Amino acid sequence: MSEALLDIAEVAERSGLAPSALRFYEKKGLIAPAGRNGLRRTYRPDVLDRLALVSCARSAGFTVAEIGRFLVATPGDTDLRARMAVKARELEEDIARLTRMRDGLRHAATCAHETLVECPDFKRAFAGPPQPVPR
Amino acid sequence: MSEALLDIAEVAERSGLAPSALRFYEKKGLIAPAGRNGLRRTYRPDVLDRLALVSCARSAGFTVAEIGRFLVATPGDTDLRARMAVKARELEEDIARLTRMRDGLRHAATCAHETLVECPDFKRAFAGPPQPVPR
DNA sequence: CTGCGACTTGAAGTGCGATTCAAGTCAAGG
DNA sequence: CCTTGACTTGAATCGCACTTCAAGTCGCAG
């Protein structure tokens, strides 16, 4: 009846992450096993929620270190909340850029210029404000 | 009067990229100098457009190798056009994810749960489809 | 001609996010 | 008890996008 715990292989499979990645995240403080079964890490099922969050944040461009900081955030941490607001604004810009990029690509898939660089429509999609290329 | 050409330092400054990055891009086939002044590369001004395009694409998550392929695309390259369409679709997903992330962050900046992971609103923002985390 | 300083080169180094590897440990089954 | 096979570990390696470095080369002012 105490089979509430998942072992690492199960978590890996369900989360879509490699076991090595789980150990990597653990080292970085993003997750922690509930205990061990012999040498094997065992996790509470809610680690899956956490991992979904991590994956999403990763794919949104956050570093593992940043995510670690977010995960320990408390309501009193105004400093971190400010950083989050900043991040939200950055995401806003990213979204705008990606949207332009998507439109440009869509057009490129059908336009008839010799090379993309010669296509004025395509160029327009990218001649935005001089971005310093963060990432 | 033939001062239409910019030298590498000028291009670096105007594009916001390091000279080393320009040389790197050259090695990867993304840009080419118009000529040399002694050892110094000189560029036609339109290299700046190209670099803006490169920077934008980079920040949209394309690898330098991909960008190189896009830049030499011709209308007949249906294969590449298909890849572009695929990319456009991927961007669509990225945009959706980033949008959720942004909303989650905005909420997080003001909600009052002990840790973010405990905030149901925040969780909801990320409990999307099990993303395999490309990037 | 000489020296300065800004460029040139290829090779090595950096940071991030993992993955891969060799060697070790464990529980369970024969 | 001994094998099997899935896990464990830390260390090494990888890929990407650059940056940094040592050593060399150039144009030009003096």
Summarize the structure.
Chain A has 135 residues and is mainly α. Helix content of chain A is 56%, strand content 7%.
Core attributes:
135 residues, three-stranded antiparallel beta sheet, mainly alpha, homodimer, DNA-binding, elongated
Describe the structure.
Chains A, B: Keywords: Coiled coil, DNA-binding. Chains A, B: It comes from Actinoallomurus oryzae. Chains A, B: Residues 5-73 form the HTH merR-type domain. Two copies of one chain form a homodimer. Chain A is mainly alpha-helical. Chain A has helices at 8-15, 19-27, 47-59, 64-71, 78-108, 120-126, and strands spanning 6-7, 35-37, 40-43. Chain A has a three-stranded antiparallel beta sheet with strand order 1-3-2. In chain A, β2 (35-37) and β3 (40-43) form a beta hairpin. At the A-B interface, α3 and α5 of A face α3 and α5 of B. Chain B binds a DNA duplex (30 and 30 nucleotides) through residues 7-9, 18-21, 23-24, 28, 37-41, 58, 63-65, 135.
Please give the oligomerization state of what you see. homodimer
Give helix and strand order of chain A, one letter per element, not per position.
EHHEEHHHH
Give the rounded overall mean pLDDT of chain A: 83
The number of distinct helices of chain A, counting runs of at least 4 residues, comes to: 6
Q: For the largest interface in this structure, which chains are involved and how many residues does each contribute?
A: A-B, 58 and 58 residues
Query: What are the segments of chain A in which pLDDT stays under 50 over at least 5 consecutive residues?
Result: 130-135
